[in-house]
Predict the structure.
Amino acid sequence: MAATIPSWIVGLRGQCVKHVAWDDDRDTLVFHCDRDRRFVPVDHRTGARGTVNRRLRREVQDLPVWGRPIRLSIAYCQLKIGATDRRMEQLSCVEPGHGFTRRFARFVSQMARHMSIAAVAAYTGLAWRTVKAMDARALERDLPALDPGALTGLRYLGVDEVARAKGQDYLTIVYDLDSGDLVWVTEGRRKAGLIDFFDRLDAPVAQGIRAVAMDMWQPFEAAVREALPFAAIVFDRFHVMQQYSKTIDQVRRSEFKNASTAERNVLVGSRYLLLKNADRLSEHQSARLDELLALNTPLNAVYSLKEQLQHLWTQPASITAMGPRLDAWCELAEATGLAPMRRFAAMLRRHREGICNYADHPITTARLEGGHVAIGLIRKRARGLLDTHYFKLKIRQSAIPEPPLGLYALTG
């Protein structure tokens, strides 16, 4: 089919489509392009015009059209730079050093945001390693930089860690709790990684931070105390309750080991009943829980103390009022005589200040949960990521609004 198609229609700057042909052997539509002589070739390193040493042709993969794979046969120049240098012209529409267009690479990256690498590879006919590499390059190029020095107006921060896989290769993430924006991601969960973020902040911004919410991971606490001595540390209430859920389960398992056959029949399957909030249980589940608590005194005690512990954060008037309430709860926990409860009470006493700071700064890391859900989906789609740097890029991608679908982006 003979036709001359203007470059602006197909978004190929510097190229003119001369004709389109169907390749039966490859089941592919091939667009044959010639170089637009109106565009003078320049050296991509210096921006200076060069002398054409020779003209070459290559094929690159482009976005599919009408359900057909597309190849572009494009013309380009080798430039003579000075007496000895020879450099290939770089085309703005082609991914440098690769056999596909920039828009195709961006489209693959956008599909990889919602699909597994294997699914994108199957759809595009590419190798999965190629898909991953394309996605990583597109993210490195297009993601907005995380620049702590450009941040302003920070008041409350949330700090947490996420693992690439269970127990493997942690990343530290920092969110602005007022806006919900991701402001920092770094490899590891060490003190130095968090201090690096604080050191990059402008001094007035750092001094304006009033409090930082976190779990009880000691390196995070040490980093805040060293870099932001004027900021309060607020240990996350949900993390405290998560630790108490583990304590309840320890007591339940201990009671199960020492129970009779009849008691074991009641204890079997009780973990969910003990950990779930009472207002979310069905009538049948509530009846089972009542039977369990009537049968087992230690579990009745730890369950009652769970509800009291939750009320600790209910409209605390001040740190001075919240502290004695926490101390009283610890005394009740220690009075049960249960080893897991004594250990948990000792942990609360060690972190008393950070827990009670909630009264002055009622913040939690709950705003981070949306990010954690997105991160969980990334891990699930990837069936466990082996590349920590790529995992970091995907986390940053999940924290920004999705751009328009690359299928309709002609240029770039």
